[in-house]
Amino acid sequence: MLQQTTVTTVIPYFHRFIADFPTVQALAQASLDDVLAAWSGLGYYARARNLHAAAQWIAGPGRGEFPRTASTWATLPGVGPSTAAAIVAFAFDVRAPILDANVRRVLSRYHGLTGRDAATLRRLWAYAEHHTPGTDVATYTQAIMDLGALVCRRTPDCHSCPLAGDCAHDGQTITQPKPARPERHAVFAIIEDAEGAALLVRRPPHGVWGGLWSLPECASLDELPATLRVLGVEGGAVAGLPPVRHLFTHFALSITPVRLRAVTIRTTVGETRDMMWYKRGVQHRPGMPAPVRRLLDQLTKTEAS
DNA sequence: AATACGGGGCC
DNA sequence: GGCCCAGTATT
Q1: Which residue blocks in A30-169 are alpha helix, DSSP H?
Q2: Residue A127 domain boundaries
Q3: Which of A7, A220, A256, A277 to pair with A117, CA 20 to 30 A apart?
Q4: Strand C close to A154 by CB, under 7 A
C-alpha cells in the first residue's frame, strides 16, 4: 500500500484491509473482487492484484512460509528491490539496502546529486549499499526513512538535521520541467433500473482501473446511443449531470455523467460476469474507481436531502 | 530508457 | 493548483 502512497492516506485502508484479511491464508482465499473492493479509492490497483497473487503463492507453493531473503521476495509479483529489501530489513534484520523516496531524497542531498536519470539512480543505490550497516539494519533503515520523512522533506528542515555540516545540499530546490498533461474526455452513463440499481461493468484486468467495476463509458455523447444499444438498454428518462474532472499522473480526464432512469434492458445481466446491477446504499460496495464512487455517492446524498 | 499506473494530502 | 508520495511492471 505504501508504494507511491503517503502514510496518512494508507492508514485507514490498512486497518480495514487487515480486518478483512487478517492472515495470508485469508487473503489468498479471498476473491479478487473482494480485495479490489477493499482497495477501492487507493489507486494503483495492480498493487492489489499483485498482493493477492503473492499471497496465493505464499499460501500455496510457499507452504505458508514467508521468504527469508530479499531475492526470493523480489520474485513475488509487486515486490521490487526496495520493497523486498525493506521487508527483510524490518522483519528479519537482514542487511539489505533500500532506496525509497525518503532515502533517495536524503542521499541525493547528502551527496549533492540532483539528477533523476538512470545513472544517478544507480549511484544512489551504490550509496545506499555503502551506508547500510552490518548490524542493527532495521533500526538504521527506519532511521534514514524517518530522517527523510520528518527532516529532509521536500522543503528540508536543515537546522534540526543531524547530518547538517556533512551534507552537500546547498539549500537550493531543483524544479523539474513539468510534462504537459493531455486532456481526455469520456461520457459515463449512470443507467438505473426501476429500483434505482445502477449498471456497472467490469473493466479489463489490465490498464487504467484494471479489474474494477465502473460505469458504462463512451468517448462522446454522439456514441451514447450505440453504447446503450450494445448493452441492450432501452428507454428511460435522460438527465445531464455537472461534469467531473479527474486527474491521473499523465493525463486529465473530463467526465460527462449522463443519467438514465428506469430503463429496461434486453440482456440478462446475470448471464455475464462482467456486468452487474449495483443497488446503492444496500449492497456492499464493489471495487470502483474513486470518481465513480464519488458520482454514485453524490446521487445518494442528493436523494437523501 | 521510457512509460503506464491513482489518488489524496500538503504547502 | 502544483508537487510528490515507504515503486513496480511493461515495452
Answers
A1: 32-39, 46-59, 70-73, 81-92, 101-110, 118-131, 137-146
A2: 81-176
A3: A7
A4: yes
Q: Which of A40, A65, A90 is the last residue of a domain?
A: A65
A247-268: pLDDT as tens digits: 998 899 999 999 999 778 876 6
* Domain total in chain A: 3
Cell triple for residue A84? 523486498
Q: Is the CB of A97 under 7 A from strand C?
A: no
- For the CA of A287 and the C1' of B6, the distance in angstroms is 13
Q: Which residue, A65, A97, A113, sits at the end of a domain?
A: A65
| Distance from CA(A87) to C1'(C11), angstroms, rounded | 28
Which CATH number fits the domain that encloses residue A50? 1.10.340.30
Kindly report which amino acid residue has its CA closest to the C1' atom of nucleotide C3: A154
Closest nucleotide to the alpha carbon of A104, via C1': C6
